[in-house]
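In pairs, describe these two lines:
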Amino acid sequence: MTFSCDVVAPLPRNTLLRALPAQSLALLLPRLSLVALELGQVLHPVHLPVTTIYFPETGLVSMVGVLADGEMVEVGLIGYEGMVGLPVLLGAEFDDQEAMVQAAGTALCLSAASFRKALAADPILKAVLMRFVLGFLGQVARTAVCNGRHQVPQRLARWLLMAQDRLGSPCFRMTHELLAMMLGVRRAGVSVAAAALQAAGIVRYERGTMTVLDRPRLEQASCECYRVVRDAYDRMHDEHLPDAAD
């Protein structure tokens, strides 16, 4: 990977980095480089060492479970609220999931070796980042519950809401094939669900572009899983942040 020479802004868009105390952010900033995230790019493959840590600024990254036959199902979604490379934060080197870019964007990144040095030098840094781990594990668990108990239209609405939250736009590129893969269902099921949302005037889908037209009604069409995960992330940001005196 070739890192760009772009200058990192004093306050990144990534909310996880923005939540860091000033001294912790100052420790990371000189180590970070801005890179492009390309659609379909695999940031770290299954069962290979995680060599780079990413803090998305824009775009979407899916954590994907890969089966022996090559079929893939999304287990978690990460945008500018989080980071990619959690095994390193947890003291490991490998991941059982693949990190794949689902919407192109940018990220601030650093090598896993530099990240480990920063963690060793600043316990507060790890304490803050671990709060995202708790929120993300909650999202993964809720995704499993949702996939097992709720209907495809509800699951599609939940995914679209999560994507809009992270992209900050009601309009984004998305194909039925990709949605089917992410939700772990047949393409026909996604097509029927998307057509129903479109007929109701909630979304518009044309030429690979999904546009959310009525956000309140999309939330009504979703199951409770979206709000449970969203509320958990909101609490994470509202709670007291550790500082050197704690």
